[in-house]
């Protein structure tokens, strides 16, 4: 088992660049299924999840080449596709569910293993199933698979989502672009990754209005064409580096993303006393003195992203004063809090609220990161702790960050990977 070995240290300094967003690249790869021929994606992150999605597409009959050196993925989609996304792959990566919409509309049938819950919550699929049902598919569960059948094709319809789910919006959108007639999605998710997906679909020939708003109107077309598309910069990876700079009181420039995609987060940090210089393709973050603790409440975009919640916990655990962090999207996303307590943080969790009283420094200990963002946040906490912290969960981090520890070392951190026999400390 691999783990990170983190030596507490001083302020981070320097420049770091992010590449394309994991949470867009995976969906763009699924969207390639909608058009026969070669789709080319650039700025694709070299992460485990991209490799899993590539394997999933290969098993559906596509030719997939991924060149990590150039960040390019080419996907050759045949006219005849398989329609089963098997459990082994879906279990490894929930985002596999995003082939459901494309396969249903392209093949008239899709069977995708149900991923089940994970470390952050139960993660239902009812909104995905409701949406496809409204488009005329027969959706049911069969031996652990979600099966959607539409032998006569899909028909556009008005769909109002109970919650602006990212995944459900994406699946319904990708199905509706080739459905007959018009679909209206009310209460659609508005994340930049959704805008990136819709933008690529329009370039493939789809007709979509209201991109980026909570109401999207899709007029189905009969066919789409493959394109070349650059993945939008990763705002969550950028947010990770921004919090790293702030909570170590460093001076870091983060490039490769659009600061407007993190507007709410940057405003919060400015409220806390962090200095943020916004530039076209990034930000410079400086934190000359101990920041003030700030209340944070996670919300769908453009609110504070749930994927940065674990970093806000670490930030408030070290800031001046006390604050409340409220998690509104995932009911079990406070693993980081209990591990932070092991590092000496003053944190109390009550349901979906965490109350933190800031401490000047934390004290090192062995901790466990239960998912991508929790493990990354605990490494940052280790940077602000006296002594050597070990963080289990490297495999999670590799799912979402192409070069996490190397980038941290580039900013002056002492973070290394080490392999240890299972159970050894
Ligand atoms: C996407 O997950 C991201 N994953 C998540 O990032 C992110 O946290 C989440 O959006 C919210 O921003 C990818 O894009 C691969 P949702 P998704 O559907 O699509 C409930 C990371 O760290 N819900 O918007 O699964 C659900 O249980 C990951 O990169 C239903 O109840 O998120 C959750 O409570 C973690 N029924 C809420 O909605 C449904 O059918 C939001 O889920 C669908 C969702």
How many domains would you count in the coordinates?
2
Apparent shape: elongated
Share of residues in helices = 25-40%
CATH superfamily of the largest domain: Enolpyruvate transferase domain
List keywords for this structure.
14 helices; 425 residues; 27% strand; four-stranded mixed sheet; alpha/beta; UDP-n-acetylglucosamine1-carboxyvinyl-transferase, Chain; 2 domains; 32% helix; 26 strands; binds ligand EPZ
Task: Give structural notes.
Belongs to the EPSP synthase family. MurA subfamily. Cell wall formation. Adds enolpyruvyl to UDP-N-acetylglucosamine. By secondary structure, the chain is an alpha/beta fold. The chain folds into 2 domains: 2-18 and 233-419, Enolpyruvate transferase domain (UDP-n-acetylglucosamine1-carboxyvinyl-transferase, Chain, Alpha-beta prism); 22-230, Alpha-beta prism (UDP-n-acetylglucosamine1-carboxyvinyl-transferase, Chain). The chain has 14 helices and 26 strands. It has helices spanning 22-31, 48-59, 87-92, 100-107, 126-134, 166-176, 192-203, 235-247, 263-271, 309-318, 335-342, 372-383, 394-400, 404-410; strands at residues 2-7, 13-17, 37-42, 63-67, 72-77, 84-85, 109-113, 138-142, 145-149, 158-160, 182-186, 207-209, 215-219, 228-230, 251-255, 275-279, 282-286, 296-297, 322-326, 346-350, 353-357, 362-363, 366-368, 385-386, 388-392, 414-419. The strands form 7 sheets. Strands 23-25-1-26 form a 4-stranded mixed β-sheet, covered by helices on one side. A 4-stranded mixed β-sheet has the order 2-15-17-16, covered by helices on one side. Strands 4-5-3-14 form a 4-stranded mixed β-sheet, with helices on one face. The longest helix has 13 residues, at 235-247. It is elongated, with a radius of gyration of 21 Å. The relative contact order is 0.15. The mean pLDDT is 96. Residues 22-23, 26, 95, 121-128, 163, 165-168, 306-307, 329-330, 372-373, 400 line the site of ligand EPZ.
């Amino acid at each position: 088992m691999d783990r990170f070995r983190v030596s507490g240290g001083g302020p981070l300094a320097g420049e770091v660049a992010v590449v394309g967003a994991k949470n867009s690249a995976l969906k763009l790869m699924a969207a390639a299924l909608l058009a026969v021929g070669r789709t080319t994606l650039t700025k694709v992150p070299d992460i485990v999840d991209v490799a899993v999605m590539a394997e999933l597409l290969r098993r559906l009959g596509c030719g997939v080449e991924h060149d990590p050196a150039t960040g390019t993925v080419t996907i050759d989609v045949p006219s005849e596709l398989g329609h089963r996304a098997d459990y082994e792959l879906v279990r490894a990566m929930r985002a596999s569910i995003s082939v459901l919409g494309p396969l249903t509309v392209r093949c008239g049938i899709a069977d995708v293993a149900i991923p089940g819950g994970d470390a952050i919550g139960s993660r239902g699929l009812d909104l995905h199933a409701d949406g496809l049902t409204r488009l005329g598919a027969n959706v049911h569960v069969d031996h652990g698979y979600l099966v959607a059948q539409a032998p006569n094709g899909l028909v556009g319809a008005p769909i109002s989502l109970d919650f602006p789910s990212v995944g459900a919006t994406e699946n319904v959108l990708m199905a509706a672009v080739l459905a007959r007639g018009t679909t209206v999605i009310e209460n659609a998710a508005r994340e930049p990754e959704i805008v990136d997906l819709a933008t690529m679909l329009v370039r493939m020939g789809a007709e979509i209005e209201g991109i980026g708003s909570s109401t999207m109107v899709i007029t189905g077309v009969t066919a789409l064409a493959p394109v070349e598309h650059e993945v939008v910069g990763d705002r969550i990876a950028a947010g990770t580096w921004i919090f790293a700079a702030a909570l170590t009181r460093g001076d870091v420039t983060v490039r490769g993303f659009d600061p407007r995609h993190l507007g709410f987060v940057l405003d919060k940090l400015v409220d806390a006393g962090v200095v943020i210089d916004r530039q076209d393709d990034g930000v410079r973050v400086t934190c000359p003195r101990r920041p003030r603790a700030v209340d944070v409440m996670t919300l769908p975009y453009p609110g504070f992203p749930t994927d940065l919640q674990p970093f806000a916990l670490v930030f408030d655990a070290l800031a001046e004063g006390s604050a409340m962090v409220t998690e509104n999207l995932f009911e079990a996303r406070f693993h980081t809090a209990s591990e932070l307590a092991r590092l000496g943080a003053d944190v109390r969790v009550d349901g979906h609220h965490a109350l933190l009283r800031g401490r000047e420094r934390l004290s090192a200990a062995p901790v466990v990161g239960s998912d991508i963002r929790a493990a990354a946040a605990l490494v940052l906490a280790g940077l602000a702790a006296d002594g050597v912290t070990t963080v289990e969960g490297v495999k999670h981090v590799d799912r979402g960050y192409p070069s996490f520890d190397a980038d941290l070392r580039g900013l002056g951190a002492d973070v290394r990977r080490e392999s240890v026999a299972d159970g050894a400390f």
